[in-house]
Amino acid sequence: MSFPRLLLTASLVCASLAVPSLARAACCYFSAKNADILQPSQKAFITWDPERKFETFTVQPKFEGNALDFGMVIPTPTQPKLAEMPRDFFKHLAVYSIMKRREYPHSALLATLYPPPVMKSFAAGSGDKSKKEETKSEAPRPKVIVLEAGVVGSLDYKIITAERADDLFQWLKDNKYNYSGDEASLNHYVQKKWIFTVMKIDTAQMKRSKDGTFAGEVTPTRFSFASEKLIYPLKITQISVRDKTEALFYVQAPYKVDLPGDMTYQFMWAPLLQNAVGCTPQGIPGGGDDWLKRFGPQMPPLFAKANMLGFRFLPGQRPAPGKDGKIPTTMEWARRLNKADIGLLTGKSPYSDTVPNPDEGFTLADIRDPKKGPAIAKVIQERLNKSQRERPSGYHVRHAPADDVKNLQQLTGHLQDGWFITKFRKIFTRGEMNDDLLIVPARYNDIEDRSEYEEILPSSPP
Asked: Which of 159-168, 181-190, 193-202, 453-462 has the highest mean pLDDT?
């Protein structure tokens, strides 16, 4: 949903003709003129309330091509409510989840810098508005029913339902949605009685390139709907890619989440934590020590499974493809939000710690002065000692432009105190998209994972 590489899969559907072999989308577009288009990148933010059985996801596709013919199809288990989101919503999420690093005060004036205690390995280099039409018993039932129509942001949309895939397929054609997929891909959702939202793009809000095509990002749109499970439409995206597609998820729920089975990020997370043992005198941040202790007996079978799948992890590198070209999921940020985290959105909490400058008020000439120098050196050393006593683990530092930090206020109301946000990346092969994506509580063999990840570890990938 970059932004450290703002690529994310969405639950959107594909309907374009030409697709690059390394597509980076989990949805695709319609092209009425049979023109080649570039696959868009995708970003998604999902919120799941298990008590209410209610899900929302926000998606923002990026595209290049003949936007006059672009559209999207998004299947959901029940009829969704649509809402426009801030245009830079995913940029704000990216800034909010920038990883922290440890920094320590040091003096440029003293002959010997105050050394950090082993911690240098933490440095970067290391109810519905619309109702179904009631029909009289003698009247034929419409093959495709339009439940709702309207405009959200730059998108015209219709929410439709159908009892037969061939009827829906024909309706798409009749309404100038040149769907390049087959009826079987639609039938997967028709049989489950899912609802379809079809959207067309208002190109008046987009930029035209020199060759007459359009390029840009669609207005972020939020879909809210009832659902029995935390599920993300994925199967229909098979038709949008030939090889693989990359997805970056932000999932907010009362607990930490993961992907099931061989898609779990524990293949990456467990060895990442293991490599941090001994490099963090105050313990692995975010409860990593506790997770390793409880997870310990599961390590041998986990690593055996990783070896069978051909997964290998090298410190500081992203995982390479294993057996059958599959790439393990990587967790990129995870935290249970508290009041301070929510206060960050309104400026009540600092975005980053400020590392004190022990040399403040002094100059190089001062320290070199034979009369004043020794006393100044003593003051500087006392300041360093004070910082060491108060913050033995250092200061948690990250950097972002002041305007970007100020604009985090646009996340207000979307992030919830006490809920977990799990950010993870998965590159799906076509073989991994045979069904919709089920997102599950983070646990391994019934051992719950509550560990957090917001600080760079010694072997963290870039």
From this structure: 159-168
Which tokens hold the place of 462? 């870039």
Closest listed residue to residue 440, CA positions, set 304, 277, 261: 261
- Tens-place pLDDT, residues 249-274: 999 999 999 999 999 999 999 999 98
Predicted confidence (pLDDT) at residue 429 exceeds the cutoff of 50: yes
Going by C-beta distance under 8 Å and a sequence separation of 6 or more, which residues neighbour residue 71?
15, 29, 30, 177, 198, 199, 200, 201
Closest-CA residue to 225 (of 85, 60, 52, 84): 52
DSSP 411: G
Dihedral sign for Cα atoms in the order 125, 313, 289, 450: positive
* Other Cβ atoms within 10 Å of 139 Cβ, number: 9
In whole angstroms, give the CA distance from residue 289 to residue 282.
10
Nearest to 236 by CA among 15, 42, 460, 4: 15
Nearest CA to 40 out of 29, 26, 25 is that of: 25
Q: Which residues pair with 421 in a beta bridge?
A: 252, 335
The mean per-residue pLDDT over the stretch 198-220 comes to 70
Contact residues for 88 (Cβ-Cβ < 8 A; gap 6+): 407, 410
The CA distance from 316 to 116, in Å, is 21
Give the separation between CA 353 and CA 255, rounded to whole angstroms: 27
Nearest CA-CA partner of 337 in 250, 274, 437: 250
pTM: 0.82
| Cα 118 to Cα 278: distance, rounded to the nearest angstrom | 9
Q: 165-174 and 183-190 helices cross at what angle (nearest 10)?
A: 120
Span 231-248, mean pLDDT? 81
Range with top average pLDDT, 163-177, 274-288, 411-425: 411-425
**Residue 13, class by beta-carbon neighbours within 10 Å (0-12 exposed, 13-18 middle, 19+ buried)?**
buried
d(CA 57, CA 61): 13
Query: Which amino acid makes up residue 391?
Result: R
Could you read off the pLDDT of 85-143 as tens digits, one per residue?
998 999 999 999 999 998 999 888 885 434 445 444 333 333 444 444 444 445 566 78
Q: How far apart are the first and last CA of the chain?
A: 18
Q: Are 78 and 195 in contact (CB under 8 A)?
A: yes
How far apart are alpha carbons 99 and 334 in whole angstroms? Answer: 10
Q: Does residue 133 or residue 239 have the better pLDDT?
A: 239
User: For residues 234 and 11, what is the distance between their CA atoms, to the nearest angstrom?
Assistant: 6
> What's 153's DSSP letter?
T
Amino acid identity of residue 111, one-letter, is A
Bridging pattern class, strands 244-253 and 44-49: parallel
